[in-house]
Specification:
- This protein is mainly α and 78 residues long.
- It has one domain: Transcription Termination Factor Rho, Rna-binding Domain, Chain A, Domain 1.
- The protein contains 5 helices and no strands.
- α1 crosses α4 and α1 packs across α5.
Length: 78
């Protein structure tokens, strides 16, 4: 029998990648996001859909976007 994982220490637990992107786009914008994480899906005809596809298969980029989200939330006091 396995024990359930304790996700309480993970600040991203329960937050979808789509929600992360949507909030960042609304609050920061594609241009500022592209300066922080240099990926084409943020600069060339950016969309939530294309970004989700890329980030789901590119762990290093997803980690950078998640870090940007957490940093943004900390600065806003949320």
């Amino acid at each position: 029998m396995t024990t359930p994982h304790d996700h309480s220490a993970n600040p991203l637990h329960g937050i979808t990648l789509e929600r992360i992107l949507t909030e960042l786009v609304e609050e920061v914008g594609w241009e500022r996001m592209s300066r922080r994480v240099r990926i084409a899906c943020f600069t060339s005809d950016p969309s939530i859909s294309s970004s989700l596809k890329f980030l789901r298969r590119t762990p290093w980029a997803r980690e950078k976007v998640e870090a940007m989200y957490l940093s943004h939330k900390r600065r806003r006091g949320a």
